[in-house]
């Protein structure tokens, strides 16, 4: 049986390479069933001296990864992003959609898509574009959203107008201080039948043996 191919979308201030490293335990946990393929966001995140990276609990430390990347900016002038920042419009989302479209063309097809933090919020938007038939290249059969949230940007409200039919697994930590679990719960109504996996930890992709069954149960219907 061929493994499922899953496109992996990293968090803010990460990149495809660093996210691959940080999900090593997940790759090991699912290696017989899933092939994870990683992409990097198109936007370079400016480094601010002394600034703490929003993804720091996941091992990127103050300042984030050396090649810090983002999928969109909530502060257009500062070219920065905060999940809590309310804004009228964002910067850079169209380029990110184009990058994923090209990744699907060149590296696909993919069975599913997985996102972490800002990447998970982006995955929800990509699924919405797919269901609105605005991106004919997209044909994801399922989505895994780790530490996801609803964008606080008003121009992104269009992504949440109708609950999405795509099967989804939502994973979040009860001690997450970067994306508190209530923010992840606010995303659940945007999906028709969301499945949920909670863990007692913080801002990372959980992949302990205790989580294996939940992942496999969710994925087995797509194999």
List the helices and strands and how they pair.
Elements: E1 4-9, H1 16-22, H2 24-30, E2 34-39, E3 43-44, E4 69-70, H3 93-107, E5 112-116, H4 118-131, E6 142-146, E7 168-173, H5 181-187, E8 194-199, H6 209-219
Overview of this protein structure:
By secondary structure, this protein is an alpha/beta fold. It has helices spanning 16-22, 24-30, 93-107, 118-131, 181-187, 209-219; strands at 4-9, 34-39, 43-44, 69-70, 112-116, 142-146, 168-173, 194-199. Strand 7 (168-173), helix 5 (181-187) and strand 8 (194-199) form a beta-alpha-beta unit. It is globular. Residues 50-64 have low confidence and may be disordered.
- SSE order, as H and E? EHHEEEHEHEEHEH
Q: What are the segments in which pLDDT stays under 50 over at least 5 consecutive residues?
A: 50-64
Helix content: 25-40%
Taken as a percent bin, the fraction of beta residues is 15-25%
Question: What would the average pLDDT be, to the nearest integer?
Answer: 91
User: At CATH's second level, what is the architecture?
Assistant: 3-Layer(aba) Sandwich
Structural class: alpha/beta
Tell me the number of structural domains: 1
Number of helices: 6
Largest sheet: 6 strands, parallel
């Amino acid at each position: 049986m061929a493994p499922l191919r899953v496109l992996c979308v990293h968090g803010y201030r990460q990149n495809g390479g660093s996210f691959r490293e940080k999900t090593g335990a997940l790759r090991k946990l699912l290696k017989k069933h899933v092939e994870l393929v990683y992409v990097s966001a198109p936007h370079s995140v400016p480094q601010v001296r002394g600034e703490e990276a929003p993804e720091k609990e996941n091992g990127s430390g103050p300042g984030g990864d050396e090649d810090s990347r983002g999928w969109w900016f909530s502060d257009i002038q500062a070219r920065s992003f905060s999940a809590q920042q309310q804004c009228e419009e964002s910067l850079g989302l169209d380029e990110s959609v184009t990058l994923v479209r090209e990744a699907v063309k060149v590296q696909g097809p993919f069975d599913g898509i997985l996102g972490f933090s800002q990447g998970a919020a982006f995955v929800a938007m990509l699924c919405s574009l797919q269901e609105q038939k605005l991106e004919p290249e997209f044909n994801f059969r399922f989505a895994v959203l780790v530490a996801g949230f609803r964008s606080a940007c008003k121009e992104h409200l269009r992504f949440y107008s109708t609950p999405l039919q795509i099967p989804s697994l939502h994973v979040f930590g009860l001690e997450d201080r970067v994306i508190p679990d209530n923010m992840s719960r606010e995303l659940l109504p945007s999906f028709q039948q969301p499945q949920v996996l909670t863990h007692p930890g913080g801002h990372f992709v959980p992949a302990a043996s205790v989580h294996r069954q939940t992942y496999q149960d969710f994925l087995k219907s797509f194999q």
